[in-house]
Write a structure and sequence with these properties.
five-stranded antiparallel β-sheet
Length: 109
């Protein structure tokens, strides 16, 4: 898990009621916010990234995708390893050529 502090955040406070997608990540809750995965920590927010692992691989794993295309205006971006995926129906979708790769599931609340 990456542990780096988010530079600027403004006055918004992430809570279960803030309206941002809550993600279960390594035993705690993070919040998806403008392509970042924020974790409240000692008066600031840490930047987290979904690790590449057996549950969330980064390899080419073509899947049937009925999303009609992914972009940040339609689906939330999720930092995953050294790239971004899109959250769609509980899964991380990664656009790859003429298909989407399945980069595993992501538990949200």
């Amino acid at each position: 898990m990456t542990h780096s502090m988010h530079d600027t955040h403004g006055d918004h406070e992430h809570t279960e009621q803030c309206g941002h997608t809550a993600v279960v990540h390594e035993g705690h809750i993070d919040y998806l916010h403008e392509g970042h995965l924020h974790h409240p920590h000692e008066g600031h927010y840490d930047e987290h990234v979904i690790d590449v692992n057996a549950q969330n691989p980064a390899s080419c794993q073509p899947m049937e995708c009925s999303c009609g295309g992914h972009d940040a205006s339609q689906h939330e971006q999720v930092p995953h390893g050294d790239h971004y995926d899109y959250l769609y129906q509980g899964h991380l979708h990664h656009p790859h050529g003429d298909h989407c790769d399945d980069h595993g599931s992501l538990q949200t609340r």
